């Protein structure tokens, strides 16, 4: 599948210290009526919670990283699930030795300081619906 979209506007700013990273990005999208877009961010977190999708049993496995980490890269998208904007993001996080951890960004990742850019697109609506093959809510 492929949808052709156009960039409509770009939001850029800083997220609040102590807030949940995923929930903050989702709240911004709802507040600014972003239904389709691209999210990028850099910064640092006080602690993180990542998920890994186990393809065999079709379950997310959580991993907690209870320490300060740099967000070396956050890349995600915005689409619609159950009638609401939803942010799907993956992150790479680095510790003080430069070791990196990566995965699906989960609730429970707490912001130290984060700068984001959200590119807002128009021209299509991508909705997530349950996909029986993968067990994931994929675009249709
Ligand atoms: Zn994911």
- What is the chains' assembly state? single chain
The helix/strand class is: mainly beta
CATH architecture label? 2-Layer Sandwich
Percentage beta strand: over 45%
For the sheet with most strands, the description reads: 9 strands, mixed
Note down, in words, how this protein is organized.
The protein has 140 residues and is mainly β. It has a single domain (10-122), classed as 60s Ribosomal Protein L30, Chain: A. Helix content is 8%, strand content 61%. It has one helix at 21-31; strands at 6-15, 37-54, 59-65, 69-81, 84-94, 100-105, 110-122, 127-130, 137-139. Strands 1, 2, 3, 4, 5, 6, 7, 8 and 9 form a 9-stranded mixed beta sheet that branches. β8 (127-130) and β9 (137-139) form a beta hairpin. The chain starts with 5 loop residues before the first strand and ends with a strand. Bound molecules: zinc ion (ZN). The site of zinc ion has 3 residues, from β5.
What's the layout of helices and strands?
Elements (H helix, E strand, L loop, with lengths): L5 E10 L5 H11 L5 E18 L4 E7 L3 E13 L2 E11 L5 E6 L4 E13 L4 E4 L6 E3 L1
Parallel strand pairs: 4-8
Antiparallel strand pairs: 1-7, 2-3, 2-4, 2-6, 2-7, 4-5, 5-6, 8-9
Bound molecules: zinc ion.
